[in-house]
Model the fold of this input.
Amino acid sequence: MSIRLGLLALLAERPKYGAQLRTEFESRTGGAWPLNVGQVYTTLGRLERDGLVRNLGGDDDSHIAYELTDEGRAVTAAWWASPVGRVETPRNELVIKLALAVTSPGVDVTAVVQTQRTATMRHLRDLTRLKATPGSHPRGVRLPPTSPERDLAWSLVLENLLFGAEAEARWLDHVEATLVRTGAASAAPPDTHTDHSERPAPPARGAGRTT
Done:
């Protein structure tokens, strides 16, 4: 996702410094996409370079605050008013892995699919448990006290993750069924790089028969 636009949206409310932005971002998304302060300040530096935010200087604790410029507000307003683009297909490691597996000699594609399904189903169970426990968040994520609005935000994020895991599990079922139907379920033989033009000719019909 675009951290850049997420930070702009948070700064549209009021000026904030880097640690505040990280805390706000993780709080509102339930810690699903953790950030580190270095990543936040690197992004802020690029936003400042592009004229979308301005540096307000540091306070007594050396916290450097940032605020939106007019251009930054315009970019943020345009983001709210526009759909998320689908011009480029996002890179999905699992899809790339399976596409390469079915075309790589010696790879047991079925084993790859089954291993992934086990992990996907475990992830789905974890997400289901989180949904069944209101106020729960991913293990290890420390969030500030919640509010009804932030609980709703986390619920929406969690349901998106659930739908994604369910869709992945269904897709893996489809992949395995396709492998069986096409006869590609077992591993392809290793590629020995044999020059097929040098293979001996097959024996003539009837050769080797005894009477």
